[in-house]
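## Example record

The block below lists the input lines for one assembly entry, exactly as stored, with component labels intact.
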Amino acid sequence: VRLQESGPGLVKPSETLSLTCTVSGGAVNSGSYYWSWIRQSPGKGLEWLGYVYYDESTTYNPSLKSRVTISLDASKNQFSLKLTSVTAADTAVYFCARLNWNSWHFDLWGRDTLVTVSS
Amino acid sequence: EIELTQSPGTLSLSPGERATFSCRASQTVTNSYLAWYQQKSGQAPRLLIYAASRRASGIPDRFSGSGSGTDFTLTITRVEPEDFAVFYCQQSDGSTFTFGQGTRLEIK
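Predicted structure tokens for the full assembly:
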């Protein structure tokens, strides 16, 4: 199973950051795993953003809940992240990851994608 | 939210030496749901240990995890040249997830 992020590397302040993670070698709607987004910046280290399940239920980091939406498209075997009203503080490397609910750990990660927020 | 504090910040060792990493939680970690990851420069983190002491698939047995409650340890019995990287701990209760700030293992 492999995960691959895609999306713009540059987003303007106040706009919406949109990223997609394509899963190959496994089905996002199998129900065996959750699908998550994590970001990493020098200032805040590793920060979990949220996850989506095959039934499209979601859980988000409370600190970002009002700005984050994670969705799943089983027909494309993808899941996506939208982060609204971005600022420079949202500049980070973004990872998609597979979340194993058996003890809640991230057992598979995508390569990463750097997103810079700048005008 | 449970905060994780890792120590030391940097560990300087020579290949063949024993490495010990500490992760301390601000509250008891639910069911010892604590994981350890290794991250090399320019790469995504790689899962090493989950549920405090279970090695992930393909991880060499020189890596081991222990602990419960609020104190957890990752040990590398004999550091290999390819082990030098940053190591993170992570905990969850299923609704929130937090990571430690990391410990850098560098060549002495």
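The interface with chain B takes residues 45-48, 59, 61-62, 95, 97, 100-101, 103-112 of chain A (CB under 8 Å). Chain A is about 0% helix and 55% strand.
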